[in-house]
């Protein structure tokens, strides 16, 4: 059992396996128990499931605090792991709200019924775990070898925040997505859904031989993961400016994304109520970018103060959005109804 104590990316192997075990257990419980039979996830059920995932994320944050207090967990850059984990978690969660709008457009384009959407999102977690891991590993390697990369991340985030404030949002056309075009060109794709199946065998229209076809559900899954990769371009640099500890960066990212899949069905109905939240998020990105410059030249910024400022800005954005859009449910026809 000595191999469990081997150091992998700055942390003992058992710690990584513990986290991945939690993620796998949650996915098995989610798909194998809670959603063994596909059904349409209502808003109330979505909120309850999301609360469960948030509770798990907080529990894991409690474990990080406990391990940090007894000296079991030490960050590679000396940052406070508790403040870094929760700040990263909150930022990733809020950044992902924009992703909800894109996901709903993708499902609409491929005409995926709501009862199959949740299963596709949960299976997408596997792709996210791999893709985020690759991006975070690359980022960590760059920062460990070239410290000035943090300045590039800081400038990028500040620029992104300013852009979000001044540049209007453009329309998202799923048909122009490069992944959609590539799959249509190089893959056999069925015109119709085949229940919850990602692949089916059916006769090729030219040869008549039975060949493997991807279903629209699988293509939607690939496009969603590609969209998540694009959104990660903002979120990964943001958390690297909070801490460069790979374990904290990765766990905060994955925990936030796990919960987002559950919250999607509530957010999809209420996303118009958070219209002004993007401006608060833009301010947060600018703040983190500027904090990155400060930390590089003058030393560490107080982690709890940074966490408090982040929470304060986002909370203000949420309250202002809900206040400005009060009564909009009647216009959109999306008022929450009990399941």
Write up what this structure looks like.
It is a single chain. The protein is built from 11 helices and 4 strands, in the order E-E-H-H-H-H-H-H-E-E-H-H-H-H-H. The chain has 339 residues and is mainly α. The strands form 2 sheets. Strands 1-2 form a two-stranded antiparallel sheet. A hairpin with a 6-residue loop joins strand 3 and strand 4 (210-214). Helix 2 runs antiparallel to helix 3. The protein is globular. Residues 333-339 have low confidence and may be disordered.
Question: Could you outline the blueprint of secondary structure elements for this entry?
Answer:
Elements: E1 7-8, E2 11-12, H1 13-34, H2 43-69, H3 81-109, H4 114-145, H5 149-166, H6 178-186, E3 199-203, E4 210-214, H7 216-240, H8 246-270, H9 277-298, H10 303-324, H11 328-332
Antiparallel strand pairs: 1-2, 3-4
Strand order in space, largest sheet:
1-2
Along the chain, the helix and strand elements come as EEHHHHHHEEHHHHH
- How does the major sheet shape up? 2 strands, antiparallel
Mean pLDDT: 84
Uncertain spans, ≥5 residues at pLDDT below 50? 333-339
**Residues in helix, %:** 55-70%
Strand content: under 5%
């Amino acid at each position: 059992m000595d191999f469990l104590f081997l150091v992998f990316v700055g942390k003992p192997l058992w710690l990584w396996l513990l986290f991945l075990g939690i993620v796998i257990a949650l996915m098995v419980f989610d798909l194998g128990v809670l959603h063994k039979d596909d059904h349409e996830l209502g808003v109330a059920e979505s909120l309850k499931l999301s609360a469960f995932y948030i509770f798990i994320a907080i529990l894991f944050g409690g474990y990080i605090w406990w391990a940090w207090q007894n000296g079991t967990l030490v960050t590679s850059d000396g940052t406070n792991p508790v403040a870094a984990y929760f700040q990263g978690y909150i930022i990733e969660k809020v950044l992902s709200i924009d992703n909800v709008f894109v996901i709903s457009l993708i499902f609409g384009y491929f005409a995926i019924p709501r009862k199959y959407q949740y299963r596709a999102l949960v299976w997408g977690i596997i792709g996210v775990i791999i893709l985020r891991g690759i991006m975070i590993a690359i980022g960590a390697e760059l920062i460990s070898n070239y410290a000035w990369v943090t300045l590039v991340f800081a400038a990028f985030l500040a620029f992104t925040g300013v852009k979000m404030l001044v540049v209007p949002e453009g329309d998202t056309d799923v048909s122009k997505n490069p992944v959609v075009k590539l799959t249509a060109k190089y893959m056999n794709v069925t015109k119709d859904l085949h229940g919850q199946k990602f692949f089916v065998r059916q006769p090729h229209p030219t040869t008549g031989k039975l060949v493997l076809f991807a279903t629209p559900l699988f293509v939607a899954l690939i496009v969603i993961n590609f969209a998540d990769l694009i959104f990660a371009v903002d979120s990964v640099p943001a958390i690297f400016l909070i801490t460069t500890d790979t374990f904290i960066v990765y766990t905060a990212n994955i925990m936030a994304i796990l919960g987002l899949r559950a919250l999607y069905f509530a957010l999809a109905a209420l996303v118009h109520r958070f219209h002004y939240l993007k401006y608060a998020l833009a301010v947060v990105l600018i703040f983190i970018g500027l904090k990155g410059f400060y930390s590089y030249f003058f030393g560490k910024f107080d982690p709890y103060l940074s966490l408090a400022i982040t929470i304060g800005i986002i909370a203000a954005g949420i309250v202002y959005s809900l206040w400005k859009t009060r009564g909009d449910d009647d216009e959109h026809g999306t008022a929450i109804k009990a399941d």
